[in-house]
Write a structure and sequence with these properties.
Layout: E1 4-11, H1 18-28, E2 31-40, H2 48-58, E3 64-70, E4 75-76, H3 80-93, E5 100-103, H4 108-115, E6 118-121, H5 133-138, H6 149-155, E7 157-163, H7 169-180, E8 183-185, H8 188-199, H9 215-232, E9 237-241, H10 244-255, E10 270-274, H11 293-306, E11 311-314, H12 318-334, E12 345-346
Parallel strand pairs: 1-2, 1-5, 2-3, 4-12, 5-6, 7-9, 7-10, 8-9, 10-11
């Protein structure tokens, strides 16, 4: 088995799957240095930068260098001029001499010839990992087991349950997670609040707890970090008991005004707002806002609409709320992930 100074692997990685990672690891085991070239076209819906980041995370070995380039030239394996145009893109991205090109594609020999390098075939029959990026794009949920942690985190459909105090958000979120066999992300703000109350000592009452404005961005950031971590090893659905967006409304509730820098990115996909009507208020030691529930419900509703977030209001008894929540999540999943088709290839 030959050893090479500089090897090359190139592909779209749209998105990356175990076959891609097997290709990279096989090449890395036979080279002093390996360049992984991520080639994305402008029509594709996963940004080039994301794919580069994913491949860098999965293949963090020091002798593996992941770079990216935009290649908007449709592939035609029969046209020398098209080959020349592609090679100009590849050479601009990888100007160093290449000793070996590792591929699982039929164009491997020609690619190697044009680089003046050996062409090494790696499982072109796809016997070791019978999966393709096309299959993943068509149905990510069915192929979820093949996706690496950063890809899962990016593709997971994130569902947020939020609402005013004592409106059944935690109960609904847990039931929804159980229904889908999904990861559940707890409300960090509640844990944070419990610690603040405990710090006041035995016998302290919730009315004695005071919040500073600067605490809310920290709560929001921690909530988002917990969510992102859970998405990495969860399934295609992630159920979150509140989110960073909701924290901005809680800032208004406790301090009476909006935090100027607490606007959260809409990285979640569906918000389920639990109505306060018909839900008895239960004081669990961390609540005192029964009279504020109508206001909070409306504020959540107004801000969800104003910011263009996709949301459903859940009303009635728990069984109805859960059924409506499941229907909303099923609708979300039924729409698919909406990957744009890559540029066509002529073989």
């Amino acid at each position: 088995m030959s050893w090479y100074g500089h090897g090359l692997v190139l592909g779209k990685f749209y998105p990356p799957h175990p076959g891609h990672h097997h290709l990279v690891r096989t090449a890395a085991a036979r080279c002093d240095r390996l360049t992984v070239l991520v080639c994305a076209s402008s029509v594709e819906s996963i940004p080039l930068a994301d794919r580069v980041d994913w491949m860098r995370e999965v293949h963090a070995e020091k002798h593996i260098h992941v770079v990216g380039t935009v290649d908007d030239i449709p592939m035609d394996l029969t046209d020398p001029d098209v080959w020349d145009a592609h090679m100009a893109v590849f050479r601009a991205a990888v100007p160093e001499a290449v000793d070996a090109v590792f591929t699982s594609e039929v164009y491997g020999p020609e690619l190697g010839r044009r680089f003046g390098a050996d062409a090494i075939d790696v499982d072109s029959a796809r016997t070791r990992y019978p999966v393709s990026a096309t299959a993943v794009r068509a149905d990510p949920a069915a192929e979820w087991r093949y996706l690496a942690a950063p890809v899962r985190a990016a593709l997971a459909r994130r569902v947020v349950v939020l609402g005013a105090e004592s409106t059944g958000t935690t109960t609904l979120a847990n039931a929804l997670a159980e229904h889908y066999g999904a990861r559940y992300v707890p409300e960090y703000g509640r844990e944070y609040s419990a610690r603040k109350l405990a710090a006041l000592g035995p016998g302290a009452h919730w009315s004695q707890v005071e919040f500073a404005s600067a605490e809310f961005p920290r709560i929001a950031a921690r909530q988002q970090a917990i969510e992102d971590l859970a998405a990495r090893d969860g399934g295609p659905v992630l159920v979150c008991d509140t989110d960073a967006f909701a924290t901005s409304i809680w800032h208004e509730r406790y301090l009476g005004y909006a935090h100027p820098g607490l606007a959260a990115d809409a990285r979640q996909h569906l918000w389920l707002l639990t109505d306060h009507v018909g839900v008895p208020f239960e004081d669990d030691g961390l609540r005192d806002g029964e009279h504020l529930r109508p206001w909070m419900t409306q504020r959540f509703r107004d801000e969800l609409a104003r910011t263009g977030r996709r949301f459903v209001v859940l009303s009635g008894p728990h069984r109805r709320r859960l059924a409506d929540a499941v229907a909303a999540v099923d609708d979300l999943l039924g729409e698919g992930w909406g990957f744009a088709d890559p540029l066509p290839e002529k073989r």
